[in-house]
Amino acid sequence: MAEEECELSDEQKKEIAKWFLYNAPSGEIQYIAKDLRSVLNDDKLYDEATSEAFPLYNKSHLICLELPCRSGDVLITPYNELEENQFIEPRTAQIVTIDHVKQACTEVRPAADEELASPYVEEFRCALDAEILKYVEEAYPKGVCSVYCVDGKDAEGSGCNFEFAVVIAAARNSPKNFCNGSWRSVWNIKFKEDALEIKGKLQVDAHYFEEGNVQLDAEQECQDGTIFQAPDDCAISIANIIRHHEAEYLKSLETSYSNLSDKTFKDLRRKLPVTRTLFPWHNTLQFSLTRDIQKELGIGK
Amino acid sequence: MEAALGLMRRIPPKHSVTALSALVSLLPNHSSDLLSQVDQPLQVLCDSESGKEFILCEYNRDADSYRSPWSNKYHPPLGDALLPSDELRKLEVEANEVFAIYRDQYYEGGISSVYLWEDNNEGFVACFLIKKDGARTAHGRRGYLQEGLWEAIHVIEVGPEDETTRYCLTSTVMLSLTTDKESSGTFNLSGSIRRQMTMDLPLADGHLCNMGKMIEEMEGKLRNSLDQVYFGKTKEMVCTLRPPSEVVMRLPNS
């Protein structure tokens, strides 16, 4: 049927290219881009597609870029984006400009006061950041995290609501071992007058591709809440809630995996027939085979 | 072309149908190569004569019609279509019957089809296919699967008959598992692996026996591989990203 279709328009080709880029597994977008360039055979279209798809991919995968002069890292997320290529790094109060396609920082400058949160909000943010950092260092061998104020950053005192996004990302890329994976968790915390509403979304994916292509894709949402307290107490409370839910999720992933091996897989294909012996192919010489086998296996009287 | 295959290896298995049709539309000149080299989920038709289902693949297709292994007729009907020789057809009928029993023993359900056709080298080619949908198990009990699919494609090139005959088997297994447990959100593990095996065997026990044993051995290996290596590696990756709490020594101080 493909022979009957007419040539695709440039726009259609670009959309397809963007789809491939956006659906690249963690850590593999550059490889996909290289193959795509070959398939497209049209550099102008390739450049357009990459410039549109990379920003979406980078923000969705919460990629982590090193700041120049090794002064730290910056996470690229939808929560700390100021303008198309500009992202705020609140821990060091800097604004970073990046090149999405190259996945690298091009410029850094200190943040202006108006770009940062008010001192009132910043106290909460800073305390939470410190607690989360402690947690991530403890729980994730290669994790990075940050806390961003996504709403109400100019709040001046109690009575004003504000909202944070806690972002935790860990990626393990081992292309030589044909294995890549990532953990992403995003926690939205709404600070209201007397209570905190917490919503979390956890995503894990892993890709193993030696002589094959197997991928894990898992996701979980959860909710919790706590009372409004002083910044330090809030921070500890929130960090504990996050720690609890993430540990629980990991446990349930492990359970899913062991069920997979023991029960689920067996529903698809047994290791051996019920007879616990290999299939008796040896009577294949004539048609009577089927009757012999049926007799032997005791099926169909 | 190699770049296209590279893309197929990286794109998540659950998107493979979309990916392949996208590639075919980007590279219309390579469409037949792509279609024959990239395995796609197996589709099924019902044979109107026997009421039995059969699996569709490139090997039983002629134009837009597919030949049923049960009635040897094309659906939709096709005049002047490719059919195996009488001798090969006899072997094909037997193969389908025996393979159906094999399939029942290991899969306790599912659909199987076998297609044979002459090739240019005095031998023939056989394609054994199995499709098992695990969410509807044979005994009607719901397992943990919300969606579970095992599809196996075994293509054997059988050489000319001699003292020993050469059998070249290329097997692909495609797997997709989605568990359905409220507390753990969505959990989807899918993938495909492909292996080859070549053996030179005497014809004493017949072609069917030789091919059957090879397939059985191969399926066992692939199943184990998927279970231990592939699933094992992805699980290892998850635990590397975030080790289980028992490993963490320090307790939170609040």
From TrEMBL, chain A:
Q: Which GO terms describe its biological process?
A: actin cytoskeleton organization; barbed-end actin filament capping
Question: What's the domain of life for this entry?
Answer: Eukaryota
**Which Gene3D superfamilies does the protein's record reference?**
F-actin capping protein, alpha subunit (3.30.1140.60), F-actin capping protein, beta subunit (3.90.1150.210)
Q: Which GO terms describe its molecular function?
A: actin filament binding
* This protein's UniProt keywords: Actin capping, Actin-binding
Cellular component, GO, one term? F-actin capping protein complex
Q: Does the keyword Cell cycle apply?
A: no
Subunit annotation = Heterodimer of an alpha and a beta subunit.
Q: Function, please?
A: F-actin-capping proteins bind in a Ca(2+)-independent manner to the fast growing ends of actin filaments (barbed end) thereby blocking the exchange of subunits at these ends. Unlike other capping proteins (such as gelsolin and severin), these proteins do not sever actin filaments.
Family under the similarity heading: Belongs to the F-actin-capping protein alpha subunit family.
Record protein name field: F-actin-capping protein subunit alpha
From TrEMBL, chain B:
Q: What does this protein do?
A: F-actin-capping proteins bind in a Ca(2+)-independent manner to the fast growing ends of actin filaments (barbed end) thereby blocking the exchange of subunits at these ends. Unlike other capping proteins (such as gelsolin and severin), these proteins do not sever actin filaments.
Q: Which GO terms describe its molecular function?
A: actin filament binding
One Gene Ontology BP term is: barbed-end actin filament capping
Q: Which Pfam families match?
A: F_actin_cap_B (PF01115)
Q: How does it assemble?
A: Heterodimer of an alpha and a beta subunit.
Q: Please report which protein family the annotation says this sequence is part of.
A: Belongs to the F-actin-capping protein beta subunit family.
Q: Name one GO cellular component term.
A: F-actin capping protein complex
Q: Does the keyword Coiled coil apply?
A: no
Q: What is this protein called?
A: F-actin-capping protein subunit beta
Its annotated compartments are:
Cytoplasm, Cytoskeleton
Query: InterPro entries in the record, alphabetically?
Result: CapZ_alpha/beta, CapZ_alpha/beta_2, CAPZB, CAPZB_N, F-actin_capping_bsu_CS
Keywords tagged on the record: Acetylation, Actin capping, Actin-binding, Cytoplasm, Cytoskeleton
Organism the protein comes from: Linum tenue
